[in-house]
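Dear support,

I submitted the protein below through the web form. The confirmation email said the job was done, but the results page showed an empty box. After a refresh the structure appeared. I'm attaching both so you can tell me whether what I see now is the final result or a partial one.
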Amino acid sequence: MADLKAIRSAILGGGLLIAVLAGAMFWAPRAFSKPAEITDASLLDGYRHVEVASVSDAMEKLTGQRTYMSHSMRPIFTSKFAGFALTVKLKKEENHDPDALQGMLTAIDQGGPNSVYVMVVEDGVNIAGMGGLMGTAMAARNFSGAVIDGGVRDVAYLQKISFPVFALGIVPSTSVSHYRFAGSNIPVLCDGVPVDAGDIVVADSDGVVVVPRAKAAEVLAAAQEMDFKEHSMYAHIEKLKSIVEAVKKFGRL
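What the results page shows now:
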């Protein structure tokens, strides 16, 4: 009988212990995992499907900064792209050094998919910063495009291979013997806009906008919201034949 009582006591005690442990597990604070950070691929995909004008508006709204390039920065053919800035700077210097521009070429060979070649040619509006050879190399390495604070040449060939370039003009000149490589993946001022290596560069028929990498996800979300509102307004305007009513309803202009 005593043995039976002992067994019964042990079972009850074990049950109590299990209940206590279960309660502790139930009441323990839950560990919430952080939301997954947006990947580079999804970030660029988002920027490739949003209007550059909305990106410009989102940047100004969230940061107070105007990071769009001037009306002079135009595409050599209608195109739209987004990618990460690979910056290159050339400085004016008359020379006979065959290696003066070697760093400019090396920077291309170090770039890859989703790169945007952002070149600043000092006082170079009438100097071709790039042409067909460099464009072919960028296309072969799957660059997204190029933005040149300077001129571009070999435009017919660049159009033939469908490599998108925005530049300040089309000129037949060369930088060889007139310029020297001054650095790559360094901060530059491209058509008046600060650009750091790795910043997001977006371009379409409206122009070029730069988004600092640290602000990219936040700016994209705001631009997507602006896009949604604006695209929703078209049918509303057509139906009511009133832009006043559409702006009142959606708050977007």
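Response: this is the final, complete result; the empty box was a page-load delay. The CA atoms of residues 81 and 203 lie 5 Å apart.
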